[in-house]
Each structure stands twice: as C-alpha cells, then as structure tokens.
Amino acid sequence: MMQSIKVDTVDTSELTIDGLTPPLLPTENGWLTNKDIKKIMDDEPLPRLPLILVPSHELIMKPPVMHYAWPIDVDGLLIFAEERGLTARRVNEADPFHENEYQKREDEEAEKNEDDEDEDEDEEEVEEASEDTDIILTETSYNALRVMAEEAGAKVPTDLLKVAVGAHNATKRGESTIVSFYTNFDLHRTDLPLLNEIEKLRNALRMQNEGPPKWYLDASEYRWTPWAGRW
Fold first, then answer.
1. Residues with Cβ < 8 Å from 23, sequence gap 6 or more?
2. What are the φ/ψ torsions at residue 157 (nearest 5 degrees)?
3. 8 Å CB contact between 69 and 217
4. φ and ψ at 206, to 5 degrees?
5. DSSP bridge partners of 226
6. What is the pLDDT, as a whole number, of residue 130?
7. Which residues neighbour 44 within 8 Å (Cβ) at sequence distance 6 or greater?
8. What is the DSSP string of 123-145?
9. Side-chain half-sphere of 64: how many Cα atoms within 13 Å?
10. I need a labelling partner for 148 at 20 to 30 A (CA). Which of 121, 137, 156, 185 fits?
11. Whole-number percent of the chain with pLDDT over 90
C-alpha cells in the first residue's frame, strides 16, 4: 500500500493514471519518443498530482521530478534583485585577479615568448574581459524569492523556493521558467506552504492573470529511473 498523502494538491485516487501518457507514465527501458516530448510541451500543467507520481519505494521505479509551481518571467526577478542589491555575480575567469588566470599570466610573463605589441593587445583584451561579469541565476533568483517572501509575510520555506525549468506548456508559453514552491519529492515534509501563504506572493511575482499553482514536469529530470537509494 502506498504511503498516505495528506496534501490538497495531490490526487490520492488510484484511477488518476487515466489519460496520462509518457513521461508521466513509465515506459519499457525508459525510452521516450519525440512525440512523447512534444505532447508534454503542448499539454497544460496538472492541477493535482496523480498518485503514481508520488515517490514511493513500493514502486519499482523512481518517478520524474514534478514542481508545484507558477510560470514566471525570470527577467522580473533579475530586475527586482538588481534594484535591491541582491544580484550574485561570477567574476569572469579572464579577470587578472582570478587565481588561476593570475598564475597563468605570471607564467606567460616569465616565458616572454611574445613581442611587446602582442603583449599589449593581450593585456587590453584581459582588462576588457575582466570588466564583464556573469549573473549567477540560481543564487540571484533565490535571493530575490527569499526577500519577496519575507516582505509579503508569506510562510513559505525558503529552502523549497527555487527557479526551475518546466516542460509542461512550454511550446504555448514560449517560456519554460517556473518558480517552484515544492516538488513531489518534498511531500513527506510537514512544513509545505499552504495555498493562502503562496497567494501572498502573487503580486510580487506578477501572477495576476494566473490561477493557483499547478504541477509541471521538470525539463531535466523527466525520466523514470531505478531507485539508487532512499530519498
């Protein structure tokens, strides 16, 4: 008997596999066709999670990751983060003060195998590259979501909040970024956020035209796989 789930967003009926297709159902040898992938990208996300997608060691296979989430414009998060000084940046590895690059430049100077003109050009390129920085999307998004939740007074565990890529409805949306409040692998937790707490984030996340969050298939971990250990 599968574990008892007391989460409103999960459909505990054994009949909810009706109408499901791969990759929401396991296939022989885990194989998926292009048709399977296209269908899931065209399909709407699920309002409730079918019981078969709840992880259980009573099943032979581990289900794919499903996110209880809203679609989101990640640019809005990045703008919020920039305005609040929450942006995390990775210094370009060409920065002369990056440890490895600094050592590399010392070695190059010691060898002195290039003429002065080439050395000047190289130094200009390094200086120009060192001014560029890459935004660390995961950390920046988390920073923004954490502050949004705090300011909205939303009781949403911040370790569950994340930006992910969802496969459902990606074709229609032309965008696959979602903000995930929890996954099917978090259902054992006793502190999952209630819908009324998630709703407090609606304005901050600009979700005025969206209904309640729905279940999205993860675009990376979308396959059924053998259990490798306890979760």
1. 32, 36, 37, 40, 64, 217, 222, 223, 224
2. -55, 120
3. no
4. 60, 50
5. 61
6. 31
7. 168, 169, 214
8. HHHHHHHHT-EEE-HHHHHHHHH
9. 27
10. 185
11. 55
pLDDT for 117 beyond 60: no
Structure tokens at 130: 């060192």
DSSP-assigned states of every residue in 162-210: EEEEB-TTHHHHS--EEEEEEEGGGTT-S-PPPHHHHGGGTTTTT-TT-
* Burial readout 205-221 (b: 16 or more C-beta within 10 A, e: otherwise): bebeeeeebbbbbbbee
Backbone phi and psi for residue 182, each to the nearest 5 degrees, phi listed first: -175, 170
What H or E segment, with its residue span, contains residue 119? helix 116-130
**pTM for this prediction:** 0.78
The most distant pair of C-alpha atoms in the chain lies apart, rounded to whole Å, by: 76
Work out the average pLDDT over 154-181.
91
Dist CA 145 CA 127 (whole Å): 34
Annotated domain spans of the chain: 10-79+138-226, 91-135
Q: Please state the length of the chain.
A: 231
Residue of 47, 84, 70, 55 whose CA lies nearest to 189: 55
